[in-house]
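User: Could you check the structure of this?
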Amino acid sequence: MATTAPATPSSEDRAFFGQPRALSTLFFTEMWERFSYYGMRALLVLYLTAPLVSEDGGSEGLGFDDGTAIAIYGAYTGLVYLTPIAGGWIADRLLGARNTVLYGGITIALGHYLMAVPFETSFWIGLMLIALGTGALKPNISGMVGDLYDERDTRRDAGFSLFYMGINIGSLLAPLITGWAADRHGFHWGFAIAGLGMTFAVIQYVVGWKHFHGIGATAPDPATKRQRNNFLLVLVGSVAFVVVLALLVGLIASGSFIDNMATAITLFILIVPFFYFAQLFRRKDYSAQERRHVRAFVWVFLAAAAFWMVFEQSGSTLNIFAQNVTDLTVGSWAMPASWLQSANPLFIIIFAPIFAAAWTKLADRAPRTSVKFAIGLIGVGISVLILVIPMSAFQDNGSKAALYWLLTTYLLQTWAELFLSPNGLSATTKLAPAGASGQMLALWFLATSVGTSVGGQIGKFTADNPVMTFIVSGTIPIVIAVITLFLRKWINRSMDPVH
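Assistant: Sure, the predicted structure tokens are below.
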């Protein structure tokens, strides 16, 4: 996560809802970037599984089976959450946050436009560009928001709340618009609209550039030539390692190269956290309390990975469930399956203020982090276990699932997210030993990467029996929740004084 130049706008600058004018630029940049990402994400698995040729003889999708498509989705989203590690380093050591965000945005837009071209090669190149661009933009734009305020500015929390509202607005609108375009005119039109959204983000970012003053203008800790060469060596070595791993997987498995590559990426993602934890545990300068905190964070990491393993299946397994199993008709009208991807951001907009107010009112009487995590894990587990009922009915007699099944699933996942995600991020920053906050935050985001990629592999190996997908996916977080509740006294002692 990048830290940028210390210069901040004047506290007298209240041009955007009482916040600095520069927040407006970052708000709309992130809103449109999330619009582009979630607009593409809502279509990705549906495009991967659509037949090669449509009913009217035109091109439609890539014709992958459900299991392969889910594995590709899991590996890809895992990669999206892995690349910010490199993006934060580039901003901190090479370009500064401001330029890194700009170049990331341009790369994302180019990736979407390549996906809009009806050729398979351009599709894969576009996907990779979006992952790389997201890694450059995502961690650093959040860092720039933080740098708008000095330590005594009481507007900081409200500013971040406003910023995250932009994220949810973008992710709410995107599936509705790109889903409509894909349903009416084909998937490539949906990808093009996602690219248009990212273009809007880049344009207004450049227009609002002047309001940043000194924020993110330079790298705060410039790398030496040797450090730059080592960074490049790690990047090239990582890519080569994944390719070799894919070839080795191909010797064992009988899947396509794309399928083997998805497996290789997943294995690579699973390896990366071990290096980060090894660095954390190797340090000798921790106090006794800091060492307890690092041990407690291992539990935070595993619990978060289990949560995101289920939650991120909304774009893959649940998207396929919406397309193939759910009755999407309302009267005589049938909604696109991708529209249901807007349910979570809608519920977040409704319930996030309620949860925030509840935690504020309860203060020290609120449940400990361990209990909040357990509740979140149980909630996300139940959210997919309930789908065993309509999925079994569909397999038995072909009866379609009513719309309320998926809506209930997304509502439960939203409540679970509000118990776990903000509290997990807060706990991560509080548990971090002095000088290790960057590594801990990287591991927090790596938990999402691990979870999404593992979820893809579960979906792949149980695709022939989706009931088993839901049973396995739902049982894992619930088991971890039960273990958490059983060990909560030890966890709480290890986390003290973090609540």
